[in-house]
Every structure is written in structure tokens, then in C-alpha cells.
Amino acid sequence: MNFSLNVFNYYNIFMKDLRLKVLRNERVGKHTYLMILELKEHIDIKPGHFVMIKPNDTFDPLNRRAFAIADVEYDSLYIYYDIVGKGTSIMSSLKEGDSVDTLMPLGNGLFEPSVDKLNIVLAGGIGISGVSLFCKLLKAKNLNFKVYYGARSKEHIVMLDWFEKYGIPIEIYTDDGSFGKKGFVTDALENLENANIYACGPTPMLKSVQAISKQKGFDSYISLENPMACGYGVCLGCVVKSKNGYIRTCVEGPVFKSDEVML
Amino acid sequence: MDKLEIELFGIKFKNPVWVASGTFGYGVEGAKIYDISKLGAVVTKGLSLRPREGNPMPRIAETPCGMLNSIGLQNPGVEAFIKKIYPIIKDIDTHFIANVFGETEEEYMEVIRILEDVPKIVAYELNVSCPNVKKGGVVFGQDPVVLRSLIEKIKAFAKKPLLVKLSPNVTDITEFAKICIEAKADGIVLINTLVGMKIDIYNERPFLATKTGGLSGPAILPIAVRMIWQTYEKYGKAIPIIGVGGITTHIDALEHILAGASAVQVGTANFYKPLSPLDVIEGIKNHLDTKNLKHFKELIGRAHRLDIK
Q1: pTM of the prediction?
Q2: B6-304, superfamily in CATH?
Q3: Given CB atoms, is B58 within the 8 Å cutoff of chain A?
Q4: Protein fold of A118-262
Q5: What ipTM was predicted for this assembly?
Q6: How many contacts, defined by CB atoms under 8 Å, are there between A and B?
Q7: How far apart are the C-alpha atoms of A171 and A129, rounded to whole Å?
Q8: B19, B32, B38, B48: best mutation site toward chain A, by most A Cβ within 10 Å?
Q9: Which of B3, B9, B128, B278 falls 20 to 30 Å from B206 in CA-CA distance?
Q10: Chain segment A106-132, per-residue pLDDT in tens
């Protein structure tokens, strides 16, 4: 390969454009599906990384869609996704043996655990699949951490089997109280002191994390999910406002220090 | 000689497949996916004299077989490009063409003056067709008098070839091509995006923050081919045409070439199919073999041959 050394050193990761086989694709929640893709080579996936997926070869929808990587196991890549539009709807119709185009690992802003403070992981909705790999890391490193997960109601809750499998305790909040505690997942931050917060979920939840963190002086990290056209830094369609102007969610993120970005 | 090698405006390109401005950054990101030295050239994201923040969000929207964008030429400015980005790309073995943008004639000229001493930049692509900025851009590209003056002023001092990327949002593209030829531009690039719009039916308002945006992607392929055809028909002998618009596969690229393009740029496909430019290169090669042709140049404008009396 004819890369210059400079290009190698610019960022540490390289991205791969791979066509992967669907091993499993099934409904696991009210609007949520789990897709397992077959990985035939090792890819260095870290907590926070995401993948772009195109479910078919047609031009409608045109672009790939961004998904959190929920887990990597031997030769399997786990993607949990909500059906929100045309792309995810087509994705949900895929069967075992079909294949999809992927680009990964993507993102440079990743989740880095604190070794001395309590690590608080907050997930809202499908954001649970954006923090699961991080939880696995916290558990593997035997660090001090707690996981809180908020969903609209009982039928929207997913991945509990996964957390059980890895022996990771998780506390649940639902908007309507149909499962776990009634309330928002950010309620978990109320009586907390001296912790690092790691959050992934809808924008109102992340805004709330920003506000509480500012008030309590927490070091917080939020994972954003802006719509993207390319996922690797060339379209400038997924930018977020920061102190230094617009920065790319896909390259500088998707995980940002919460006081770095304006939502 | 390689079947795909071509010399245009005094520069040798290893092949006629380039990547389009605004769809490939400055090459740094693409170089993390594949060996970009395989490309004929990289056309940079638009460079302006001062940093530009770009437009507010949302900036992109998908439409049937295409997408709208209104990025607003976000870029770090030409000086920051030279200091921070150029050192990363300067050893990559392909040509870089700087897409140049200004709000005034003076700004365009100043950016070019600064880039004159940057060895890796082999040519300029004049951005007079961006539909997403309030000042500059398409304001220059839709006014024949203003366009002529700008090209003439740049040609008076610029040592490197000047390509002009034209707007398709005009009644007769060939009028503007004529101005480029008369003002001694070295090539024309056809086409930039078409102005379009999407409405958010739930919030009952335009989807994009700037209301309108530029349509790109497979949806615009036949429009690009038509405009290349019309321009080549009138001025094919006078100036090289670079085709851009809707290219994903070698088939799309060959349509551009047969209509009259001497080289092509892959644009939006870089988003949904990052390896597309490499597939286009391979596909053209295979097509030449299948048709038993010695060089792709034999195909430039070839679809016109039955019209020649």
C-alpha cells in the first residue's frame, strides 16, 4: 500500500468496507430488532465505535445508516436497531444468509472509563446498545460502575438477556412505571456525588445530563446519534456546534465531553 | 501506455476517475479506507480565504435516489489547509486539485495566489456554482458578465490550469461554457448540484435549515449527461469537459465519457459506496478489454458520431 507515514499517524484507526452476511435478524422489542452479522476477520472495535450499514443495493434509500456496535463476540457483530424509516424498515426484512454493506470501525471520540471514580452509565431507549460494549469493558477491568437504563415502557425494553449473560446488574426506569422505577433515567443522578457520567440516548436526555453535570461538576461524556450521510468525515452533514465551531459527530465523536458540545 | 492515462491541460493523470469536491474532504479520510493514490485526482473540499463555519443543521436530507445538502462551504480556510492538512497528504502519489471559493473577486484571487506555491495542487477548480451560500458561489456562475471578469482576472496571473465548475441551474449551460472558453479557462466541470427542496410533513416546514439545498446522487445522472452532451456538441473541440453528477458505477462514468467528458468525478457515491471510484476504474478497464479498445480516449464524445454530417 502506498500510504504516507503521515496518513498512518493522523488517527490510529483504519476503516474497512466489508460486505457481511446476516446470521440472525429478529424482533426483540416493540420497535427494536437485533441483527447479528458474520465477521470473518478481526476488527479492533472499542466502546463508542459505530458502523455504517446499507441494507440493499438500490438507491432508495441512498445512504448507509449509522448504528452503535452493541457487542462483538468471536465472529459475530451485534446491532440493535429501532425501525424509524425506510432504511431500517428494509433492514428489518432481511433474512439469514442475506448480506449488507458495512463500513467500520468509525469514530475517534470513544468511551474511556475512570479508574478511580465511580463510572455511571446512562442509557435511554435504543441508546442501550451504544453503552453495552462499554459496560462489558468496565466489567472486564473490574472497575467501579453502575448502569441505569430508561425506556418508554416495559415492551420497549431490550438487551436484558445480554446484561444477564455478562452478569452486569442494571437498574431500569420507565416513563409509565410499567417496569422498574417510574421516572426518567436521569433521576439516578440526583443523589450522586463525585462520579463520571457516560450517556447515550435521545437529545432531551443528553441535554438533561449536560445540565446536571454542569451543576454538580461531573465529568460527563455523551454519545450523539446525528443522522449521517457518509459516517467517515467527508460529507459534513452530521456536525454539532462546539466552542470551536461545527465539528463532526462521526470523526471527532460520536462520544464528546458533555461541556464541549451545544445540543 | 496505460489504457486509462490521459493528459489534460498539460498535466498527466494516471486515469480519468477523480473524486468530486465536497464528497472526499481533503483526502485524509478516504486514505484510511483505501489506497487513494489509485485515483486520477482528488478535488478538495472548497477552500476560502478565511475559515467558514458553514450552515446551521439540518444540512442534509435524503430524497428519492438522491440527497440534498446545504453544508455552506464549511472549511478551515486556505492557510489552515496548508499548515495542518497539506503535510498529511503531500506525499500521496496522486494529483490534488483545489476547489476555490470566494465571496468577492479579490477573495477568489487571493486564495489562488496562496495556492500557487503549493506543489501538490496541480490545478484549480473554480467554484462558481455552490447554491448554498448567500454571497459568492452561484452568484458568479449565473451572471455571464461577472463570470467572464472573474476568469479573465485569474487567468491573467495564475500559473496553474483553471477549471470552472458550472451551475446546472441556468437556462442554457452552453452560454456559460462559451464564456469559459472565451475567457481562456483550461477546462469546464459539469455539473454542480441542482437546487431542490424537501418539506418535513410532521413539523410542516422546510426540512433543511437553509430551506433549499443542492440535489446530488444517482437522480441527477441524466441531467449531467445531457448537459455534457449539449456542451460537447457545441464546444467539444475547444475545451476539455470533466463530467460529474450521479456516477456510482463504470456504466454511469462511460455515459459521461461517451457524451463528451474527458475525465469524470465520483461524488455522492463516496458516501454510500466508498470504494465506488476503484470499481469505476476497474469497470472502465474491463469495458475497454471487452470492446477491444486500445485507450479510453477513443470513447470520449463517441456517442455523437452518428450526428456528425
Answers
A1: 0.95
A2: Aldolase class I (3.20.20.70)
A3: yes
A4: Rossmann fold (3.40.50)
A5: 0.95
A6: 126
A7: 15
A8: B32
A9: B128
A10: 999 899 999 999 999 999 999 999 999
